[in-house]
Amino acid sequence: MGNRICGAEVPEALSLPASVILHVYDVTTNLDVVAINRVLRPIGSGAFHCGVEVYGKEWSFRRSSNSENTGIFWVQPQSCPGASYCEAVAMGSTSMPHDKVSKLLTAMSREWLGNSYSLLKRNCCHFCDQLCKQLGVGAIPSWVTHLAKTGAAIIDEGLAAEDKIMALDKHVTQEVKNLDHRMTDCVTKLDRKVTKGVLEVDRQMASWFMGSVSCGTEAFLFGESAREDGTSKVQWIP
Is-above-0.90 flag for pTM? Predict the structure, then answer.
């Protein structure tokens, strides 16, 4: 029976404070998934779909390929298609009137676009958690989002490790390049130094040889440099 205000009957679903109920489903009707959830649920985990009932409608969030479409939708309580109903969790009551709830959902519809859906980081459970907080009844139970959070954490850790490996590889590659440049510079400088030294030796030998020719190479080569009359014994071919 609904409440009466000023003699008119007001539907109980629209009266204040309004009940907020979290409806939890197995994420699929697949019997294997249902069986796994029955094992995981007692230890605080599982793969679940959920929706928030307020003012007679159950609100949730799903994927949409159209970037302009919201992912928020509503169904009659406990009747979400494609999922197997599991249980209801009483979240408490909200003092937010029906019209303000409608405005809240309209505002959220612009934020929760269907193409922003992520199985592990932005799914129906995350939406329900946010909606419940906005309604003033607090966060949904941790066991509802545990599996998604664990999966997201594993992926984040994997990505972090991959980033570190890539950064290390980049650092090592750069160090190898720097070492190669330094070695190339050293070899180039050494080559220049050796070449300069060889050229200097050649120059000195050439200078010595030319000086020797002009200053008595004949004596060095032939034992004496001139006849008694002073003329050279060596006949140079012009």
Answer: no
User: Of 49, 52, 50, 51, which Cα lies nearest the Cα of 33?
Assistant: 49
Residue holding tokens 């006849």? 227
Per-residue HEC secondary structure of 187-226 comes to HHHHHHHHHHHHHHHHHHHHHHHHHHHHCCHHHHHHCCCE
Give the C-alpha separation, 144 to 74, whole Å. Answer: 19
Enclosing H/E stretch for 36: helix 31-40
How far apart CA 187 and CA 185 sit, in angstroms, is: 6
> Between these two residues, 27 and 102, which has the higher pLDDT value?
102
- The rounded distance, in Å, linking the Cα atoms of 135 and 52 is 10
pLDDT single digits (tens) 85-104: 999 999 999 999 999 999 99
Angle at which helices 124-134 and 142-214 pack, to 10 degrees?
120
Distance CA 141, CA 52 (A): 13
CB 119 within 8 A of CB 145: no
